[in-house]
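Hi R.,

Here's the chain you asked about this morning:
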Amino acid sequence: MPDTVAGEDGAATAVASATPWWRSPRSWLRPDDLLREPLYRRLWSSVFISSFGNQITMLALPLAAVVLLHATPTQMGWLTAMELAPFALFSLPAGVWLDRMRKLPVYVAGEAVVAFALASIPAAWALGVLGMPFLYGTGFLIGCVNVVAGSAAQIVLTQIVPRPRLVEAHAKNALAGSFAEVTGPGAAGALIRLVGAPIALLVNAGILAVSVTILRGLRVDEPAHALVRGAFKAALQEGLQFVAGTRLLGVLAAAVGGWQLCNHMATVVQILFATRELGLDERQLGLCYVGLGIGTVSAGIVGHRLSARIGVGACLLLGFAVTGFGWLQLALAPVGRWGVASFVLMLVCFGSGAVLIFINFLALRQAVTPQHLLGRMTSTMRWLILLPAPVGALLGGWIGEHAGLRWSLGAAGASCLLLAAAALAFSGLRKVRKLPTVAQDGA
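And the predicted structure, written out as tokens:
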């Protein structure tokens, strides 16, 4: 654990910086709780702060397109696709590059660049040049950062937390996001209503700057011998061959990639459905999104124990079913009060289901991968699972524009439930009860 040299888990030596309010363990924590570790507690604090800011972006960016620029469903699909395109274009080489670099500086720089990108939107609005092409470009830039810095962030966690406790760590990180999702959407909706979406994005840029300050105080020692050397092409091939040759990773990529297609079919029309079908304004929409936080908090609290009880694979598949049900019932809901209640229920289902999926998915793929391959495995897996996402976004937008927004939601929900049933029957994931172990570098 932090402040010591990690043992067989292969994590690097980590030394926490001295920051008084961070370092004193809380009396209400269990003796073995991860949050008693100063280094992890500081990382968790950064995750919480940036997650709070993300609640603003999650509402403000699509609302800027829908309200200010009157975007069509197809344009919303293209906006999402532009944010995802960098994963298809750059994930594989980014993984090789990451395994040659220290991960923490990449993570910190990524947060700073996203803050700059978000701040550019209100600047463009003030100058009168804000349009859909500008939002497409900003989304593409943020996607490029997420390809590299997002992978780096996941690897930094493995340098701080022993592998047997990765499900717990991912659950706690999800819980940090969950607390932000409970308090953030209502505040974000009120802020957007008060000052407008562009200025709200500027506020988020400031929040991300705080996260950057916290991350810069981390001290994670990544020895030079842990970095990959040699020819770029050979390193790239090694990562691809590892993922292709590990059956569990292939199964996870296929299953979660299918879920991402369904997810983005629904996501591109959610804001449009809420504002145009249900008639919600920015403040009302923000209050509804508290349901997302309720779902993620609930799953963040019980997810680790649920995985231990029914198995990590079955818990992941349960997440598929829960999110699919949420989208399908919204597609069938009436307008009016029941429609708003159904929208909130969909957000609760999505929040809880997504947490169940990703705390187990991330832990499984990290547990089975040697330390020196983590960068390439992470980027390769992100590439594989997000390849279907732009297709889902464009398909959802096209269906929404030509058949109706409900049809996009219904297609996403029905497809996700079918995916859950097929994966339960044929993937073998239900038999994976515990995290696998792998011989680590130098063990």
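The radius of gyration is 21 Å.

Let me know if you need anything else.
M.
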